[in-house]
Amino acid sequence: MSQFQTLFNTIQLRTVPEAGVPLPVGNEPRTGEGGYSYWLGKLGAAQLGPIYLGKLGVASLIFGFFAIEIIGLNMWASVNWDPIQFARQLPWLALEPPGPEWGFTPFVPLAEGGWWIIAGFFLTTSILLWWARTFARAKALGLGNHVPWAFASAIFLYLVLGFIRPGLMGSWSEAVPFGIFPHLDWTAAFSIRYGNLFYNPFHALSITFLYGSTLLFAMHGATILATARYGSEREIEQSTDRGTATERGALFWRWTMGFNANMESIHRWAWWFAVLTTLTGGIGILLTGTVVDNWYLWAVEHHYAPSYPDSGTLDPSTVSLNPQPLPPGPPDTAVTASPVTPSVPAAPAPTN
Questions:
Q1: In this structure, is the dihedral angle defined by the CA atoms of residues 308, 310, 311 and 317, taken in order, positive or negative?
Q2: Structure-derived torsion over alpha carbons of residues 7, 12, 13, 19, reported in degrees to the nearest 10
């Protein structure tokens, strides 16, 4: 049986590695000559390299290395430097932020959370340097700034979780610990503490954009693969001069979903959905504890959620920390206690 082959499925291109456009004057040269990887070709482009890091890329990797070293060594120390236990318990190990008694001061003893602050500084510096690298690379290669601004949306959520919101709350203890399961535990406890994030409308928007972006990317990727035999990989050309691949793909989605997009608009749909996932999520976290103390009560008050029957359990957020004494009753209802006469023991009976 005949089998259709394209660069997107069976065929893997093997030729002289593509070095890319010439770099502007003043840029450092690319590292390596480039090569091909069979397994990378199963996922996407088979070519690996040449690599360009530049000064920003090297600095970002150095700061990131220090952050990972600090986190890893602290986790290792927490299991008495036992390599077997370190590997066994790694998903549960954590580097915790300072406790609430330290507030938001950066001067915290290392063993009390200072290592967390230092690791966070190095990691944040690494991320920001890599953002500057993406911006500089896009500008040097004549690209738009869509990649760095999408990256900035994710950085916004990261900064809200680890720096901006803890600063507004006045305590490092509001930040997220470093660790796999510990940060998931923090998320669950955070939701319970503030009345369930399910009632946070920005959280709902974030999940909508998250699932929506996965659907849009899957729809687009599937459409390109399905119409590859008609030249759909030449998306830029077909944005201005539609060919049969674009026509068939658009017709398919019009028939099946009523959704119509072209080679240009589908990428804007997907870009906005992905960017708004972290942007709305960051806004929802930022408002939690600073503006809204209990999302369920907020949702009931704004007719966003139903009011459930009373379970008899007191909500801590509705209990006053300084209860006022009850006013005294009217004088005519006061009961005066009569004096109690102490009992006198009876004299013993005389004996014969």
A1: positive
A2: 100
